[in-house]
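So, can you check what follows?
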Amino acid sequence: MRARTFLLASLVACFFAVVSGFAQEGHPLKGTWSGDWGSSADNRTHLTFVMNWDGKNVTGIVNPGPNSFPIKSVVLDVTNWTVRIEADTKDPSGASVAITAQGKLEDLESYHRTLTGTWRQGATQGDFKLTRD
């Protein structure tokens, strides 16, 4: 009986250690992500995303610095770990250009998880891949 009680207590302690480890990580999109997008293997544009979780929404910016622009919206579907990100940037003439990125979160168990999918910027479509730093 004593051995069974000890085993049960050990299992409960291990469970809480594992759960608390996952709980400390926070929202699966929070953090700095880097990667690129492009319409071909030779035509790539570097990206850096900084995303935060305020308890209700994911917010953030793309390419921090003088050419940054805010993320308008982020929708995460946890049933299949797909993500839709929308933002607006400017073209060289200063006109607004809509950006839509739709992707899938992969390697969820890793801190350095990835987000891979399709990227549309204005009339140009390509693919993208981001890795959390």
Summary: The chain has one domain: 27-132.
